[in-house]
Specification:
Layout: E1 2-11, E2 14-24, E3 29-33, H1 40-48, E4 55-60, E5 63-64, H2 70-80, E6 81-84, H3 96-106, H4 114-120, H5 136-148, E7 154-158, H6 166-182, E8 186-190, H7 194-197, E9 202-207, E10 210-213
Parallel strand pairs: 3-8, 3-9, 6-7, 7-8
Antiparallel strand pairs: 1-2, 1-4, 4-5, 9-10
Helix pairs in contact: 3-4, 3-5, 4-5
């Protein structure tokens, strides 16, 4: 489903990723750990096509992301991928229900699953609230609901439990696991949390030498 082929990325003359190669199997839930600054978030951005590698390729279902024009790459992200960003990217002028429904509406769906997903992340009855009324942990849960609502084939999660208390984090990780398993989706989760990583099928550590089994 997803292959990294000799990816190299530099910022300001510093090499963040160097000739990185790895194949992720369909339906695999993978946790990626590693020291701060080693390139974990950069790797997620390259996989999503939100950033471009200096050299090498990201192949999704055998198709290089670099071979897609902007419209095709956007359609692939919108229909096949779900994202949980550290910065949330929740839209302040939309209600929580509208934020969560956005991927469905962009894909021509009526958005009826949005309320159920808000319930699933513990925000029952909050659909008409706005992001300004939320704590950081609640904003993170909205971002998680939005990432899952359209049942993506690949979930990319950057520290998805970073703002959550342990009990809520455990519940959310169980939801991520259940939602991806229910339709055979793959998931790549960047995390510093060993408890979060323990939910994965496989734990990889990103170092300057590449990705290695923990």
């Amino acid at each position: 489903m997803l292959e990294l082929d000799q990816l190299t990325k530099t910022y300001g003359g510093r090499t963040v990723l160097s000739n990185l190669s790895h194949v992720f199997q369909p339906g695999e839930f993978v946790a990626i750990m590693g020291e701060s600054g080693v390139g974990k978030s950069t790797l997620l951005n390259l996989i999503a096509g939100l950033d471009a590698a200096d050299s090498g390729r990201v192949l999704v279902d055998g198709v290089p992301m670099s071979a897609l024009d902007d419209d095709a790459a956007t359609r692939l992200r919108r229909t096949r991928m779900g994202f949980i960003f550290q910065a949330f990217h929740v839209l302040p002028h939309l209600t929580l229900r509208q934020n969560v429904a956005l991927p469905l509406l962009l894909n021509g769906d009526a958005g009826e699953r949005a309320g159920a997903m808000l319930d699933a992340v513990g925000l029952q009855g909050r659909g008409d609230d706005f992001p300004r009324q939320l704590s950081g942990g609640e904003m993170q849960r909205v971002a998680i609901a939005r990432a899952l609502v359209h049942r993506p084939a690949l979930l990319l999660a950057d520290e998805p439990t970073g703002n959550l208390d342990p009990d809520t984090a455990s519940s959310i990780l169980g939801l991520l696991r259940a939602e991806t398993r229910s339709h055979g989706a793959g998931a790549i989760m960047v995390t510093h949390s060993h408890a979060a990583a323990a939910m994965a099928d496989k734990v990889l550590v990103l170092t300057n030498s590449g990705l290695k089994l923990a």
